[in-house]
């Protein structure tokens, strides 16, 4: 096991460690069915991904509250070994914090001091990063009966000892010859660890699996979309319902690109109805015209699905977007609650998925109770409450002309967790606005193992309310991009209060019994608001964009708030970020308490390298050919601030060195796989010609100075 180099910074020393609750090391990670059933009253700990099986992300602790939060300060900080995206929610069990980091590594710390207890590296193949649609992130671990479970970016599920970090078992959960990845946090129920996978953009068939926590043996599997009919049944829990309900909703040869429907984030155990409720993702390819000849609902894409946790047998489903065509997923957080609606107590689930509607369902049967937009949206007139189906605007399917979609595939709400406070009755949503112009790709060519959407992403088309001039139109659409923290009333289906943010990609939320809501921002601020009124009353600068969800816990009578900071994910790789003008610093876990006396590690912004264009002469034909290949293969990873900006690459003036990276895989260990299966030498050099022209433009613009935070 290769150990990464980590650095811990805290002022608390050996004495503090000696009195921490980690003294009972032989009982590390003792979480079981009975304990999780009582997690709501176990206020000291954060035992599972959303604290309890209901995944409300509400901590009842109120030692830190809206009256004394001015005394909240840093208790400790633990710096990581990578500047890739950090999305994990930590688990805290009896004074020990367990969390995953980028590249699927696992860390255990003393939750009171930040002292490193152990770390585990699954040693994933760096080249696998090419199959990660949205960075080499990992959203967390599960802890059960002395074991810590983590899914890896190369599709494995691993159990390690909660006391020592030593590997116990390691199973491959996917066909590793295909572009599957795992980024989700596992969930555990009834001695079964539940895991899904990612990769729908690249062409895979989604499913969710249950493995025995003791042995790692497969217990059951449920495929979310039908396979090739010629192959017959899968021998899986899903066979009957796929044949009976799903297969008749598909057309053409959907199986050639898998169909999609990956389960990459939300899985919730509903103990009251003894069911697993699962969020299912988008289609592969996105474009319904290509995926299914433009026909059929394509079950179970963009659905919420309930199955029996013991057998995986189907119970019910609700499909939010029949015939999905926009990357509208229902993988976003599912939260369980008891609400009184129209005077009647209801057992509900709540979800704010990408499509911009807030859904409240009866979780006993999956029937729609209500659905209203929580952000501006233009793809549907409404959700029909009788049928549960959206009443779409015909132009939204971009069959004949481009459509400027709001929300877009980025989502009105991505994976960042929302929280629900039973004190205020409000859901706190990290919402976004990011318009995107969709157009049918008339010349769609499949590139196996790469992004295959069937969509052309264009400059914003002419439409009412936008300027005629293209440059002005692009500027106007860019100005629409924003983030919001929305306090949503799920009964009235309306916003109680909102906080506008200048950039969309902000962190998850935590609600507490101290009338507080915490959220991190893309600009590195970790902030607290009053839960009832939305007044900002506290902020701390971490110097790293925050996208992960915070937690609350208590050790030795002291309450802590903790969050993992480190910018990344899909927008971190694929979206130009104007305010980020520095090399990204390594991620960091930070924890706060009243009267904390720790200091952050020293931080000096590191300047970006200047543009480094070659003085070679390239033809217009080379540059145009390179532009097309760059957009197909490079832009998705090299436009945002997380991965190297190729306009600043030293290899722009080194044709041989460029090929050694692009075709030879010289940097595979760092995540830059060889593209020799996709590009010829001539095409690789054409990309260099195009990027070189962009470097020249950047250099001539004078926009090469760097300002760090």
Tell me the overall shape. Answer: globular
Largest sheet: 5 strands, antiparallel
CATH homology superfamily name of the largest domain: Quinoprotein alcohol dehydrogenase-like superfamily
* Named CATH topology of the largest domain: Methanol Dehydrogenase, Chain A
Residue runs with pLDDT of under 50 for 5 or more positions? 1-25, 705-709
**Total of helices:** 10
Architecture of the largest domain, CATH level 2? 8 Propeller
Strand share of the residues? 25-35%
Give the total of beta strands: 41
Helix content: 10-25%
Structural write-up:
InterPro entries: Cyt_c-like_dom (IPR009056), Cyt_c-like_dom_sf (IPR036909), PQQ_b-propeller_rpt (IPR018391), PQQ_MeOH/EtOH_DH (IPR017512), PQQ_rpt_dom (IPR002372), Quinoprotein_ADH-like_sf (IPR011047). This is PQQ-dependent dehydrogenase, methanol/ethanol family. GO terms for molecular function: calcium ion binding; electron transfer activity; heme binding; oxidoreductase activity, acting on CH-OH group of donors. The longest helix is centred in the C-terminal third of the chain and has 21 residues, at 681-701. It contains 10 helices and 41 strands. The protein is globular and about 70 Å long. The chain has 2 domains: 28-441 and 452-587, Methanol Dehydrogenase, Chain A (8 Propeller); 620-701, Cytochrome Bc1 Complex, Chain D, domain 2, CATH 1.10.760.10. The model is unreliable at 1-25 and 705-709 (pLDDT under 50). It is α+β, with helices and mostly antiparallel strands and 709 residues long. Helix 7 (620-633) packs across helix 10 (681-701) and helix 9 (655-662) packs across helix 10 (681-701). A 5-stranded antiparallel beta sheet has the order 1-3-41-40-39, with no helix packed on it. A 5-stranded mixed beta sheet has the order 2-35-36-37-38, with no helix packed on it. A 4-stranded antiparallel beta sheet has the order 4-5-6-7, with no helix packed on it. Strand 22 and strand 23 (344-351) form a beta hairpin.
């Amino acid at each position: 096991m290769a150990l990464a180099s980590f650095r811990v910074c805290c002022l608390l020393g050996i004495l503090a460690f000696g009195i921490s609750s980690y003294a009972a090391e032989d009982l590390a990670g003792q979480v079981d069915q009975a304990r999780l059933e009582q997690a709501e009253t176990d206020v000291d700990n954060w035992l599972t991904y959303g604290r309890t099986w209901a995944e409300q992300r509400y901590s009842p602790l109120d030692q830190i509250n809206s009256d004394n939060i001015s005394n909240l300060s840093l208790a400790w900080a633990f710096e990581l070994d990578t500047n890739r995206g950090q999305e994990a929610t930590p688990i805290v069990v009896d004074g020990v914090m367990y969390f995953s980091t980028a590249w699927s590594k696992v860390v255990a710390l003393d939750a009171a001091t930040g002292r490193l207890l152990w770390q585990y590296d699954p040693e994933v193949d760096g080249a696998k990063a090419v199959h990660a649609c949205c960075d080499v992130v990992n959203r967390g671990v599960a802890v059960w009966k002395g074991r810590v479970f983590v899914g890896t970016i190369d599709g494995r599920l691993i159990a390690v000892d909660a006391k020592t970090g030593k590997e116990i078992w390691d199973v491959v959960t996917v066909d590793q010859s295909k572009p599957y990845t795992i980024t989700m946090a596992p969930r555990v129920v009834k001695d079964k660890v539940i895991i899904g996978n990612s990769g729908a953009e690249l062409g895979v068939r989604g499913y969710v699996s249950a493995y025995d926590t003791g042995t790692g043996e497969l217990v059951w599997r449920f495929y979310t979309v039908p396979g090739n009919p010629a192959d017959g049944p899968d021998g899986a829990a899903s066979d009957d319902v796929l044949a009976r309900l799903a297969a008749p909703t598909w057309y053409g040869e959907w199986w050639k690109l898998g169909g999609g429907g990956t389960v990459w984030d939300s899985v919730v155990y509903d103990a009251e109805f003894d069911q697993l409720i699962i969020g299912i993702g988008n289609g592969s390819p996105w474009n319904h015209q290509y995926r299914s000849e433009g026909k059929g609902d394509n079950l179970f894409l963009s659905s919420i699905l309930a199955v029996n946790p013991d057998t995986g047998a189907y119970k019910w489903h609700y499909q939010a977007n029949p015939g999905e065509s926009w990357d509208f997923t229902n993988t976003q957080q599912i939260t369980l609650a008891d609400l009184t609606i129209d005077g009647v107590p209801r057992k509900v689930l709540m979800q704010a998925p990408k499509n911009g509607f807030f859904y409240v369902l009866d979780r006993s049967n999956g029937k729609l109770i209500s659905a209203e937009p929580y952000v501006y949206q233009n793809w549907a007139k409404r959700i029909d409450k009788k049928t549960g189906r959206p009443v779409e605007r015909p132009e939204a399917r971009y069959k004949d002309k481009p459509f400027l979609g709001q929300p877009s595939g980025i989502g009105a709400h991505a994976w960042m967790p929302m929280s629900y406070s039973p004190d205020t009755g409000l859901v706190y949503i990290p919402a976004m606005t990011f318009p995107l112009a969709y157009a049918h790709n008339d010349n769609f060519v499949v590139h196996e193992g790469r992004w295959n959407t069937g969509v052309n992403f264009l400059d914003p088309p002419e439409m009412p309310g936008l300027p005629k001039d293209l440059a002005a139109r692009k500027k106007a659409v860019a100005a629409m991009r924003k983030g919001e923290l929305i306090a949503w009333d799920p009964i009235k289906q309306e916003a109680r209060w909102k906080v506008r943010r200048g950039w969309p990609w902000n962190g998850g939320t935590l609600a507490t019994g101290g009338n507080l809501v915490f959220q991190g921002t893309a600009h590195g601020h970790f902030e607290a608001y009053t839960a009832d009124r939305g007044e900002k009353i506290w902020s701390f600068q971490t110097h790293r964009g925050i996208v992960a969800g915070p937690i609350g816990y208590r050790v030795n009578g002291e309450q802590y708030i903790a969050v993992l900071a480190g910018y990344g994910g899909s927008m971190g790789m694929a979206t130009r970020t104007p305010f980020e003008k520095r090399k990204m610093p390594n991620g960091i876990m930070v924890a706060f308490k009243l009267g904390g006396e720790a200091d952050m590690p020293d931080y000096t912004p590191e300047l970006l390298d200047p543009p480094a264009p070659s003085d070679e002469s390239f033809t217009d034909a080379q540059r145009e050919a390179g532009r097309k290949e760059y957009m197909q293969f490079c832009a998705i990873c090299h436009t945002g601030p997380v991965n190297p900006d190729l306009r600043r690459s030293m290899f722009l003036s080194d044709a041989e060195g460029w090929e050694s990276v692009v075709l030879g895989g010289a940097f595979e260990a760092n995540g830059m796989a060889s593209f020799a299966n996709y590009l010829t030498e001539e095409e690789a050099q054409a990309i260099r010609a195009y990027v070189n022209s962009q470097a020249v433009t950047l250099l001539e613009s004078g926009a090469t100075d760097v300002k760090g935070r």
